[in-house]
Amino acid sequence: MSAFVAYLKNRPLWLLVAVVVTLFVLYWNVLAARRYVSEAHVVIDLVQSPAVTVPELPSLVSSAATAPRDLLLLRDYLLSTDMLAKLDAELRLREHYSSSYDLFSRLLYKDAPLEWFLSHYKKRVSVEYDEANGVLVVQAQAYTPKMAQDIARTMVEEGGRFINELAQNLARVQVAFAEREVATSAKRMAQARQGLIAFQNDHGLVSPGGTVADISSVVARLEGERSDLQARRGALEAYLAPAAPDLIQVNEQIRAVDKQLLAQRTRLASTRGNTLNRVAEEYDRLALDAGFQQTIYQTAITALERARVDATRTLKKVSILQQPTLPQYSTEPGRLYYSVTFVLGTLLLAGILQLLIAVIREHRD
User: Fold this and answer.
1) pLDDT digits (tens, 9 = 90+) for 282-320
2) What is the pLDDT of residue 54?
3) How many C-beta atoms lie closer than 10 Å to residue 322's C-beta?
């Protein structure tokens, strides 16, 4: 032992290495405060909404897979100052993290600035997305097992509330949009129906299509009468003179029927004037528009009801695959890992310095 001490005295660099290594190994294995780690695994599930029949209308809230976007949003929130403020208010986190005797691992002092507090919090809390399993792994460190578990549990509970509130805020925006659409479609429907009623009043027709059908039946009946009269005239001409009273009467009846046919056909269709076929076409167009506006209104009402339901119910739920654990052994700091890493790193650096010193001395000589 005395020879080793004498060897170190003659080599100040290795003496310094021995002192530094001894101090750091002593700190990691004896003085460093024990930190317990609680771990939880969570995923985000989309709660299916009740079936609502909305023809050709996309869902107001996307039903696409929530991972990893929602999980990454949740991760960002769990590491935010808002989350830190809730933890501090509920668990007095500042007091806990500044209560340790270990000056190197504790929060320097209780009233440290928020930026320092947040930086320390991010060193003691880990929230990582596991791409292989599609879960969010939450780890929280504390100086007692119960505090570590409470931190992890509060983070999971507040994260669930945040995700659901985020989805409900989107649904409330959709409600406002749906209400505006309902008001607009109701106004358009009323205008279309009023236009249809005004058209009926202007033309004195409730249903132009029905009037056209009635006139068509009249035309068909007149054509039948005309055919009968023509047949009768042909029979009379066979044995009566052209000036015979009966033949003259039949000719007058045929002219009267022809005049009536011309009048009725003119009402139905003509190159000039506001004929019934044009009136019926305009009426059908207005009726179709009124029906279309009513369909849009009904669709908007259905969408509004769905949006209102979505705005008041749970849309997304944080499901806990692994409840926050109650640690029984302090895994932080990694005493053996840090000690071995520091010793090897220090020896490597000292060896390089010793080699550089030897090279410099050789060149001097």
Assistant:
1) 777 777 888 888 888 888 888 777 777 666 655 677 788
2) 43
3) 13
Residue 136 and residue 128 in contact, taking contact as beta carbons nearer than 8 Å: yes
Q: Alpha-carbon distance 95 to 343, whole Å?
A: 34
- Structure tokens, 254: 């045929």
pLDDT band for position 152 (cuts 50, 70, 90): very high
Average pLDDT over residues 22-46: 81
| Rounded mean pLDDT, 41-49 | 75
Check the CA dihedral 179-180-184-190 and report its sign. positive
Q: Residue-wise over 31-52: b if at least 16 C-beta within 10 A, else e?
A: ebbebbbbbbbbbbebeebeee
Q: Please identify which residue in the block is written with the tokens 């895994």.
A: 331
Q: How high is the pLDDT of residue 250?
A: 76
In the sheet with 125-130, reading across from the earlier edge strand, the strands are 125-130, 135-142, 36-46, 316-322
Check pLDDT > 70 for residue 35: yes
State CA 47 to chain mean position distance.
12
